[in-house]
Amino acid sequence: MLGTFSYHVPTKLHFGVNALGDAGTLTRPFGKRALVVSMTVKPYLQPSFAILKKSLEDADMTVSVFDGVVPNPTLSSVEAGSRFARETGVDVVVGFGGGSVMDTAKAIAVGATHGSSLWSYIWSSDTQPTDKTLPIVAIPTTSGTGSHVTQVSVFTNEDERYKSAIFNERIFPDLAIVDPSLMVTAPAAVSAPTGFDVFTHAFESYIHANTSPIVRTLAREAVGLVGQCLPVVLEDPGNLEARTQMALADTLAGMCIANAGVTLPHGIGMAVGGFYPNIAHGQALAIVYPEFVKYTLAAAPDAFELLRQSLAPAAASPQDAIETFLERIGLRKRLRDFGAKASDLDALAAQCMVLPDYQANPRVTSAEDMRAIVEAVY
C-alpha cells in the first residue's frame, strides 16, 4: 500500500533557450532595486551578463553587482555580500552563476535583513530566517547543484573547517530562470564535476529513507539524462540539445533533494569541502562514490542496478559501472591527489558523522565504518 508522502517546490520555473531575456519582466514585481550576485564574470559569460543587466534596466530597475563570490563559499564571503546588500539597499537578490553563486545569493538574502551572523542560521540552530528574507531570483549558468529549486545555502566556517548549510523554506528562490544557452561555453573542468553532482542528487534522493513515488519518478529521469548527456557535453560543449537535457536533469534532481535529501556521499563530500576547499564539490563526491557503491550495494541492489544501466550498461556490476563512468568523465581521483593529509583522516572521519545524511542511507554507517571509508578513498 502506498504510504503518506508530501511534495513541495514553491519556486516559479521559467525554462528555455534564450529565457534570460525575460529576466527583467519576471524580476520587476519583486522590487525596483536588484543586487546581482556573481563571481568575477568569466569572459565567456560576459555577453550573457550584459543581456541580464540590460533586461533588468529595461524593466526600470537599478542594478548593483556583488562579484565577491568564491568557490566553496566561506562564512566571511557571504557575510561580506550581506554587508554590501545592507549598505547598498536592495529589494531583490539575483544570483547569476553556478552553485557557489546560488549559495551566496541565498545567504545574502537572509543576511541583508537579519542582524545575527549567518552561521547562527545553519540547519542545526534554533535561530532560523524569518519572512524578512529578501526575494531571490536564481539564474544558473551550470548544470550542477539544483540550488535554483532548493531551500539550501551551503558555506564553510573557515575557522572551524566545517561546511554546513542554512536549510529553510524561506530561501527557496521565488523565481528560477534556466536558460541552457548560458551553459554551452562552460569548460569541461566545470561541466564534469557539476554534471556528476546532478547524478548524485538524483540517485541519493532515489535511495533516501524519505523518498517518495514523485521523487523516484523524477530521479529516474534525471539519472538517465545524466548518463546519456554528460559525456556528450564534455565531448561537444556546444551541443545545445545535450545542454538542455542536462539543465532539465539538474532541475529535476534539485526538486528531488528539496523533497527527500541526500545520503552518505554528501555527508562525506561536505566534510571534505570543509577540510579542503580546493576540491570542487562534485569532485569530492566522485572521490567517494566507488567506495559508497561498494559499501551500500547489498542494501539496495535494485537501485544500484539503475545506476549500472544508466551510467555504463555494458559494465558487469554497479561498482564497475561507476568506476567506468568516472574514468570516462575524468573524475576518477583520490583525496591524496588534491593534497589531503593522512594526519587529517581521523578528524575528517569524525566530521563526516556530524551531518545526519549518513542516517538516511540504505546502509547506515557506524563511526568505525566511516573511518574505513575515508581511509579507502584517501
From TrEMBL:
InterPro entries, alphabetically?
ADH_Fe/GldA, ADH_Fe_C, ADH_Fe_CS, Alcohol_dehydrogenase_Fe
Keywords attached to this Swiss-Prot or TrEMBL record, sorted alphabetically, are: Oxidoreductase
Q: Which molecular function terms from Gene Ontology are attached?
A: alcohol dehydrogenase (NAD+) activity; metal ion binding
Ranges where the Alcohol dehydrogenase iron-type/glycerol dehydrogenase GldA domain occurs:
10-180
Question: Which metal ions or organic cofactors does this protein require, according to UniProt?
Answer: Fe cation
- A Pfam family assignment: Fe-ADH
Task: Tell me if Amino-acid biosynthesis is a UniProt keyword of this record.
Answer: no
User: Is Oxidoreductase one of the keywords?
Assistant: yes
> Where in the numbering of this chain does the Fe-containing alcohol dehydrogenase-like C-terminal domain appear?
192-378
Reactions catalysed, semicolon-separated, are: a primary alcohol + NAD(+) = an aldehyde + NADH + H(+)
Q: Which domain of life is it from?
A: Bacteria
Residue ranges annotated as transmembrane are none
Q: Indicate the family of this protein.
A: Belongs to the iron-containing alcohol dehydrogenase family.
- What PANTHER family does this protein map onto? ALCOHOL DEHYDROGENASE (PTHR11496), HYDROXYACID-OXOACID TRANSHYDROGENASE, MITOCHONDRIAL (PTHR11496:SF83)
Question: What's the protein called, per UniProt?
Answer: Uncharacterized protein
